[in-house]
Amino acid sequence: MVRISKAPEVRKQEILETAMKLFYIKGYEKTSMADIAKEMDVVPGLCYRYFKSKQDLFDTSMNQYVEECSQKFLEVIRDDKKTLEQRIDYMANLMETQEENSRYHNFYHKNGNEDLHQQLMIKIAKYLTPIVSEELKKISLKGEVQVENIEMVVNFIMYGQIGILSCVGISMKEKVKEIRKYIDLLLLSKL
Predict the structure, then answer these.
(1) pLDDT at 96
(2) 8-46 in b/e burial notation, b at 16+ Cβ within 10 A?
(3) What is the DSSP letter of 82?
(4) Fewer Cβ atoms within 10 A, N terminus or C terminus of the chain?
């Protein structure tokens, strides 16, 4: 066997991609670090050079995915050329379309992975909450909206969506419509 040297970041990403592929095929619990190494045709120790454990590997992958999923939302959230209502409209549209096009959509929406999907949604909410709070403060200072306790409202919006998004048997379009209705009541009804 010829040893192939790769840049550390390239190798690390290769391990992450292989792991997520196997987690989808075999399931998280049934996939071992040895399985990942075997799939890559490398020694198991290589995986442990980059990750302390399978859980560490999965957490790293999820955090990377959280950032990836959040990028388009961040562009909208930070777009101060749009009004709050325009930003909310655009975010609603993104929510309806983004998930289907995301890299690990099938893994997080696979039957049996509901708890992992829930974890993902909580991490996305946690990641976006401080940024949404900061933007809402700016919007409030401009007088575009009046919010008494920005931190509570943002937490309610960000984490409250998870309950709606977790509903089964309802289309994403309907879920987004409901989320939008509650956001409008909280932020736009006083205008």
Answers:
(1) 82
(2) eeebbebbbebbbebbbeeebeebebebbbeebebeeee
(3) S
(4) N
Identify the three-state secondary structure at position 172: helix
Q: How many CB atoms lie within 10 A of CB 123?
A: 18
pTM score: 0.85
Token code pair at residue 161: 């969506």
3 lies in some domain: no
Write out residues in the chain with pLDDT < 70, as ranges: 1-4, 98-102, 190-191
C-alpha angle 122/74/68, rounded to 5°? 65
What domain range is 101 assigned to?
61-188
CA atoms within 13 A on the CB side of 72: 14
Q: Report the C-alpha gap between 53 and 46 in whole angstroms.
A: 12
Question: How many domains does one find in the chain?
Answer: 2
What per-residue string of b and e applies to 151-160 under the rule 16 or more CB within 10 Å gives b?
eebbbebbee
